[in-house]
Design goal:
Helices cover 32% and strands 24% of the residues. By secondary structure, the protein is an alpha/beta fold. The chain has three domains: 1-22 and 218-450, ANL, N-terminal domain (Rossmann fold); 24-30 and 43-188, Rossmann fold (3-Layer(aba) Sandwich); 453-554, GMP Synthetase, Chain A, domain 3 (2-Layer Sandwich), CATH 3.30.300.30. The chain has an eight-stranded mixed beta sheet with strand order 2-1-10-9-11-12-13-14, with helices on both faces. It is globular, with a radius of gyration of 23 Å.
Length: 555
């Protein structure tokens, strides 16, 4: 895979200092050299039930040895510079080991959520031409290694499946170490090399591949680290899967930049999460707004949980409410950082220092380009009227957010989506914002232009489900929408016009989709039966009209 960004752009951002020589592996090596015997990464306590291995606590030195062992295993199996390595592991020391090993040899990481199943995995491995698949034997009794082996038989490029067994941080054998050292001696990693291909669901299906270089990942991580004010003394609790923006840009790379301790959590279980906050004395974490609201509603939980170590939390994946932010800060004393991000590089941040008032901070972000409002002055933002194409600047104006800057990705993976970046480098985000503040110094989120459903922080593309449900014999017409849910943020609702003489049930539709082997988190959890769907004469569906109607059936 060629380097991602054009030379002129590299020269521009290197000149401003937004892009540097840092790579993921160079950051890691610097941390190992600084504090080799300090605890670097900690497993979730439920790892025995999750994957069967024992929980580990690795120092930077031990993590380095484990990374070398896996890197040597990859090299001896023929994996080299810019080869694509697929990884499907839960948040654990093993996942950190895999990410860093792939980076060490200059290969390309494509990480998958553990919820992904055969349909998604086979497609993504095929599109990326992945050469090796790293996984574990099982997660919660789901046979990940067996599924990976089945996929390798379908994808010609997949040569190997490596199963991590949690057998400790010992380094490679002498012959393997020698081969690795010879390989590394000839390796030249460019910060403009592709480091990862993450996946994002848009309004179209299948998912879009988002290649990212070290350059743009580091720009994102720098903003997130500065927002959280992370130092080597911090303890970061990571409940977001390390597969996309929140996991990498918000947590893992800021951990590498600061040299603090990373405590892994997976899958999300509130009781375990709160126990980790207390027992590990976590100082920073990122949680979904729905969880923050849930904790504020539970006086008993707050009363019985020691949150005194927390100094800041980040929140994103869905809009915050002013009441929740204000209540959280009053009850816990921990400030809230409001994030709005995407795999493509949208990186809006609102911190207590920038906007002290929690009510304003819950809905407003500094508008980059207006003096004194941006953490990263090199990021450019603008709003465009979707009807007229006019660039908006007056307070009160609403338009689609466009951006360009050092956090922005270069392009989608070939064959996965059309480009949304114009000739001048502006990316159309598909998100509606409003300009606010006396001097137009803030942006306030309004709504999504796209139809993405965000369930528990994971994106679901309605179009993918609509296309499959349309093939059900009892479905004459269908729309898939998100409905508000206090726990998950949104849940998926299928709005169905039945074929004459039929009465489809939620179970019918779910069973039909299960036979197509899609991930369970995408399955509809609500069903609404209607006589017709609201459409324009052109046939375009008016989904906003569906949002105001209550669903008629639940899972």
């Amino acid at each position: 895979m060629p380097t991602l960004h054009p030379p002129a752009l590299v020269a521009q951002y290197r000149a401003t200092g937004a892009w540097t020589d840092d790579t993921v592996d160079s950051l890691f090596r610097a941390r190992v050299a600084e504090t080799p015997d300090r605890i670097a990464v900690v497993d979730p306590p439920n790892k025995p039930a999750l994957t069967g291995g024992e929980p580990q606590r690795w120092t930077w030195r031990e993590l380095d040895a484990a990374v070398d062992r896996l890197a040597a295993a990859l090299v001896t199996r023929g994996v080299g510079h810019q080869d694509v390595v697929a990884v499907q592991l839960p948040n654990s020391v093993d996942l950190v080991q895999a990410v860093l090993a792939v980076s060490r040899i200059g290969a390309v990481l494509t990480p998958f959520p553990v919820q992904f199943r055969e349909r998604e995995l086979a497609h993504m491995c095929q599109v990326t031409e992945a050469t090796v698949f790293i996984t574990c034997q099982q997660v919660n009794n789901r046979p990940l290694a067996e599924v990976a082996s089945q996929i390798s038989a379908q994808v010609p490029s997949l040569r190997r499946v490596l199963v991590l067994r949690g057998d400790g941080p010992a380094g490679p054998s002498a012959p393997s170490r020698q081969q690795l050292q010879q390989y590394l001696a000839g390796l030249r990693t460019d910060p403009n090399d592709c480091f990862s291909i993450c996946w994002t669901s848009g309004t179209e299906a299948p998912p879009k591949g988002v290649p990212r270089s070290h350059y743009d990942w580091m720009a994102i991580a720098r903003v997130c680290r500065e927002s959280a004010r992370l130092t080597a003394d911090d303890i970061v609790l990571s409940p977001f899967p390390m597969v996309n923006m929140a996991g990498f840009g918000g947590l893992m790379l800021p951990w590498l930049m600061s040299g603090c301790t990373l405590v892994q959590h997976h899958p999300f279980e509130l009781e375990i999460f709160l126990d980790q906050l207390q027992s590990e004395r976590a100082t920073y974490t990122i949680i979904a707004p729905a969880l923050m609201a849930r904790l504020m509603d539970s006086e008993e939980t707050l009363r019985n949980t020691d949150l005194s170590s927390l100094r800041l939390i980040g929140s994103g994946s869905a809009p915050l409410t002013a009441e929740t932010v204000a209540a959280w800060e009053k009850e816990t004393g921990a400030g809230v950082v409001n994030f709005f991000g995407s795999n493509e590089g949208t990186c809006l941040v609102s911190t207590p220092e920038q906007i002290p008032d929690p009510y304003e901070r819950s809905v407003r972000f500094p508008r980059s380009g207006v003096a004194g409002t941006s953490l990263d002055g090199s990021m450019e933002l603008r709003l465009r009227d979707r009807d007229t194409g006019e660039i908006l600047s007056a307070p009160g104006a609403e338009g689609e957010l466009e951006l360009r800057g050092p956090t922005l990705f270069a392009h989608y993976l070939a064959g996965t989506s059309e480009s949304y970046i114009d000739a001048d480098g502006w990316f159309r985000t598909g998100d509606l914002f409003r300009i606010e503040g006396e001097h137009g110094q803030y942006l306030a989120y309004v709504d999504r232009v796209k139809d993405i459903i965000i369930r528990g922080g994971i994106n679901i593309a309605p179009a993918e489900l609509e296309a499959m449900l349309a093939a059900h014999p009892s479905v004459a017409d269908v729309a898939v929408i998100g409905v508000h849910d206090d726990e998950m943020g949104e849940r998926t609702c299928a709005v169905v016009v039945p074929t004459p003489g039929t009465t489809p049930t939620l179970k019918d539709l779910v069973d039909f989709l299960r036979r197509k082997k899609i991930s369970s988190y995408k399955l509809p959890e609500r069903l609404r039966i209607v006589d017709s769907l609201p459409r324009l004469p052109s046939g375009k569906l008016l989904k906003r009209q569906l949002q105001v109607q209550p669903e008629s059936a639940r899972a």
